[in-house]
Amino acid sequence: MSWYLGVLKKYAVFTGRARRKEYWFFALFHLIASVSLILVDNLTGTYDPTYALGLLSGIYTLAVLIPALAVVVRRLHDTDRSGWWVLIALVPLIGGIVLLVFLCLDSSPGENRYGTNPKLETAKTNKEAMNTGYKTYLRLLKYATPYGFIFILGALAMLVYALTDTGFVYLIKTLTDNFAGTTDGAYIGEWKFSLPIAVIVIFIIRGISGFFSVYNIGWIGRQVIKALREEVFTKFLHLPTSYLDHKSNAELLSKVTFNIEQVAESTSNTITVLIRDTLTIIALTAYMVYLSPRLAGVIFLVAPVIALIVRFLGTLFRRYSERIQDSMGDVTHLIKETLHNHRIIKIFNGQDYESAKFEQVNEDNRKHNMKLFSTKAIGDAVTIFVASLGVAGVVYVATLGEVKDMEIGNFTGFITAMVLLMTPLKRLTNVNAMIQRGIAASASIFLLIDEEDEIDDGEIEGEDLTGKIEFRKVSFSYSKEQSNALSDIDLTIQSGETLAIVGKSGSGKTTLINLLPRFYDITKGKLLIDGVVVDNYTLISLRNNISLVTQEVILFNDTIFNNVAYGPFTEEQTLKAISAANMDEFVDKLPDGLQTKVGDQGILLSGGQRQRIAIARALLKDAPILILDEATSALDSESERYIQTALEKLMKDRTTLVIAHRLSTVETADRIVVLSDGEIVESGSHGELIKQNGEYALLHRLQFNDET
């Protein structure tokens, strides 16, 4: 308590000796700070008079505390009790600044005597978004926790880097004192060789520490990105089919490429700048306080205003970053779509139309980026302007009688440190933009990672299944808003039976077979395989018992052999499947045979060749349940004849579901069911259905007439 009273006494002495002009200067500065504070806070949508008054009280408290502490620090120095006591004296000052900045970053909007602020809801939304942003960034940084030792080494290198600036300022102070004649000439003479060497050593240390700080943090950043990419890719493999069907591939691709690279900047460059420049500012500020506490106090007064500017800009940075990411998704989507559909575009001469669409989305992306750049540029200018007010204050106070007795070396060192503060201060303003971009990108990635995986809570391992399938009053809808795609399906398929499913387009044929491997889960009813509800099987074991050939052939950009042998199969098994699918006929004509690359989605092969690869893959799996969804639709008549012969042999003693528009391919099926608007309207053999003269007979006649 006596120490505190002593501080107040010293401050009273200081204020008693202050000039009237000095009072006017501080009063004017406080007025500008007050107006700026209320204006900026109102622009952010969080205006609250109580909060504003609280911040102003904090500013005035610091205005009183800084000169008082300045006197104490100088007194400790004059009595040879500096050293670590100086740091103790600075603790309340640093604590006050941190508290004030925290208030700026964590304001809470509320009501006042005039009622609820009209911007209250917007303010709450901004605050929630800000809190979410902090949580998102903290979650992102958790990916770096395994590399704590590397981070500590990098942080130590940053500390050394920060101290080199202070060392350089000390050299400038020493040289200035010598040139001004305030230092013993013999003293500087002893250092006439050492000082130049010291300058070289400082910059060597600066270069080495800068390298290790950037390299270590960059290494951690790339490790984080690697882990994130692997987690997102693994997530893709386990997302429900329903999610993937409703999302654009380009949008998901953009998350793995563009968004994650935005995160990379937040976890490497941002951390480097944030820590290194903060340490630099602290080191230079501490030295400025040591040289002249009173002048340093003037600089400290602008800190709250800069904090508010950074806070306000952060909201804009994140908003524009989210828009940039969305627009990049649009750009990626259009490019991917154009490359995939290039034949249609060319045959219909759609180049101009696609160019116009791309120009529009590209222009939108440019505009969003320019908004971000302009905001950042304005933020830099405003920050430097506010900092210049502090510099102007220092210059003004330096002309007063109170500091005229200040040594020229101390003043030069102070000005040098103040100038060196500008660059890290500007970078710290810009780092907020990088952080907000990283937060926006991380949020979109974490939303994807937090999506529910496919439901896989079954415990039964489906081994040696016979393939009996039962649909009991099964209904299915793709969403609650849509009508049922399937309604009250009652159907039993015996083990080894071949069932053909026919009907008009959109009748529910593909939807029905998608329920078997649980690409979609039924809405109502029960679906059983071998008397067990499919939900009770583990997904892996369930799908191990099902082979699928879809209407749209799915091939990987790999060799023909690897596309067929997609799984743990021997070469002998693969060659048998290739032969059974009648692939020898075209493989033998290829220069590289089975090692021929098929291209993206098999673009280098014909439709019939692609279809036969898919059939061979299904035959190789040799599962008890075989699903053929338009499996022979892309084959010519001769190839189809060979395939049909192979399929008849392989479908024996195997439950087979065949979907086909060409009714001639299902005439030999054990049973045919006809779907219409998601319901079974007819069931029986080909001959029975023809005799019924119903919908199947109508479809058959229409196709027969078309073929003839």
Automatic annotation (TrEMBL):
Keywords (A to Z) from UniProt: ATP-binding, Cell membrane, Lipid transport, Membrane, Nucleotide-binding, Translocase, Transmembrane, Transmembrane helix, Transport
Taxonomic classification: unclassified sequences, environmental samples
Pfam families listed in its UniProt record: ABC_membrane, ABC_tran, DUF805
Gene Ontology molecular function: any one: ATPase-coupled lipid transmembrane transporter activity
Transmembrane segments: 23-40, 52-72, 84-103, 147-172, 193-215, 295-314, 377-396
Domain (ABC transporter) ranges: 469-702
UniProt cross-references to InterPro entries, sorted A to Z: AAA+_ATPase, ABC1_TM_dom, ABC1_TM_sf, ABC_transporter-like_ATP-bd, ABC_transporter-like_CS, ABC_transpr_lipidA, DUF805, P-loop_NTPase
Protein name, entry field: Putative ABC transporter
Record organism: uncultured marine microorganism HF4000_006O13
Predominant localisation class: membrane
Membrane topology, from the record: Multi-pass membrane protein
Domain ABC transmembrane type-1: residue ranges: 152-437
Matching PANTHER family: ATP-BINDING CASSETTE SUB-FAMILY B MEMBER 10, MITOCHONDRIAL, ATP-DEPENDENT PERMEASE MDL1, MITOCHONDRIAL
GO cellular component: membrane
Cellular localization per UniProt: Membrane
Annotated NCBIfam families: MsbA_lipidA
